[in-house]
Design goal:
This protein is α+β, with helices and mostly antiparallel strands. It has 8 helices and 14 strands.
């Protein structure tokens, strides 16, 4: 009698009748190990390029493949934490660098907003981005604003949309991304806090909220990073935001990089402070002119 093929679980060999059964068994074992690693917050992610090489090879590039997957609402095999390395071109205010982007959420805002959001995959970088040129502060960091204000203005009542940080994200960082990636990014329409008075009074709390386009690259809110408002005001600072499942522990928010990064939420009870994710991992706030914080631009791909 011919010897049957076998597969191994925990050093024990189990016979299987055909390759299909073996592949099924392997998948179950792999998924179980994935669940175990996620359960103890030790899943480091897999390279999408390596795991899905055959699929990606049928498309022009990894970005086109991810876009096709998202448009079809096909997320089979994708795991929160899986990643791709994105090369950033040098520009006037952006040095050449490579950022590892992890899947932070899948369809977190699907069919929501005042203009229904299509299927999408949300990516967040493991490390904050580097800044250079005239917009850099204290080396490779950036101020949230050049003046110590967390208020909006007549053009943008939303503090974040009026910030120097967001201006850099849209005007400098976005053009530095690969052209093929830019082509498949989705505008993030959200419900951000407004903080503006026509009398030019410095407001310490929200004056309201409103639907607004954040663009194709953006900083996380406190709710997206921590799951709830910490220093941001309740209600208006949350809007439609939801927690990103990538960040379920303090260590997962840091991903090994002890570098402070800006959030797009502003502090409640202050006219000058902005929320941050600190280099120690805890939620905090800082003056908008702090020179020791970096941007961490995210995006929705679809």
């Amino acid at each position: 009698m011919a010897e049957l093929e076998a597969f191994k679980i925990n050093d024990t060999l189990y016979p299987v009748k055909d390759a299909t059964a073996r592949e099924t068994a392997d998948k179950v074992t792999t998924e179980a190990e994935y669940d175990r690693q996620k359960g103890i917050e030790q899943y480091k992610g897999r390279s999408l390029t390596a795991v899905f090489a055959d699929e990606i090879g049928k498309h022009a590039n990894i970005y086109a493949w991810l876009s096709a997957r998202a448009k079809a609402g096909n997320f089979d095999g994708l795991r929160i934490g899986d990643y791709m390395d994105v090369p950033i071109r040098a520009g006037a205010n952006v040095p050449a660098q490579t950022l590892r982007y992890h899947i932070a959420a899948i369809d977190p805002y699907y069919n929501c907003l005042d203009q229904p959001m299509p299927h999408h995959i949300t990516f967040a970088p493991a490390a904050p981005a580097l800044v250079t040129g005239s917009k850099a502060s204290n080396g490779t960091n950036i101020k949230w604003n050049d003046t110590a204000t967390n208020n909006g203005n007549a053009t943008h009542k939303e503090p974040y949309l009026a910030s120097k940080l967001h201006g850099w994200e849209i005007g400098d960082f976005l053009p530095a991304l690969p052209t093929e990636l830019q082509a498949v990014l989705i505008n993030y329409r959200s419900l951000p806090e407004q903080r503006y008075s026509s009398t030019n009074a410095a407001l310490t709390e929200a004056s309201g909220w409103g639907w607004a386009d954040l663009g194709k690259v953006w900083s996380m809110s406190e709710t997206e990073a921590y799951g709830f408002p910490v220093w941001g005001s309740k209600g208006y600072s949350v809007g439609i935001d939801c927690p990103f499942p990538l960040f379920t522990s303090s260590s997962s928010r840091m991903m090994g990089y002890r570098v402070s990064s800006w959030l797009r939420s502003v502090q409640g009870g202050s006219a000058s402070y902005v929320c941050t994710l600190t280099s120690y991992g805890y939620a905090n706030y800082s003056s908008a002119t702090n020179e020791g914080v970096r941007p961490r631009p995210c995006f929705h791909l679809g």
